[in-house]
Amino acid sequence: MRHWRAGARGALRLGLLHAADCIGCCAGLMVALVALGAMNMAWMLTAAVIIFIEKSLPGGHRVARPLGVALIAGGLAMLVTPWLGSVR
Prior knowledge:
Elements: H1 7-39, H2 41-56, H3 61-80
Helix pairs in contact: 1-2, 2-3
C-alpha cells in the first residue's frame, strides 16, 4: 500500500506493480508445475498443495525450511544412489 495513489491512474499503476511482483514471484513455480504435470500428475498435485500451504495458510512460512531440507536431502540421495531415480 505504500505505492497507493488516488484516482484511476494510481489504481492502474498499483495494479501494474502488483502484476510485476506476482509474475516475478510465481513464474518459476508455474513453469515447474507445468513440467511436473507433463511428467506425473501426482507429483504436480503434491507440489501445488505444498505451494498453496506455504503461500496461503497462516503460518505457512514454517513449512519452507523443513521442506527445503527434505528436498535437498532427497536430491543428494538421488545423486548418491542413482537407482532411486530410475523407473523400472
